[in-house]
Amino acid sequence: MQKQANSRSCFLCGVENDMSLKMAWYEDHKEQQVHATVIVPEHFNGYPGVVHGGIVSAILDETAGRAVMLNSGKDALMVALKLEVTFRRPTPTGTPLTVIGWVIKQHTRRAEVVGEIRLADGTLTAECKAIVVRPPQEILDNWEAEKPYWKVYDD
Question: pTM for this structure?
Answer without folding.
Answer: 0.94
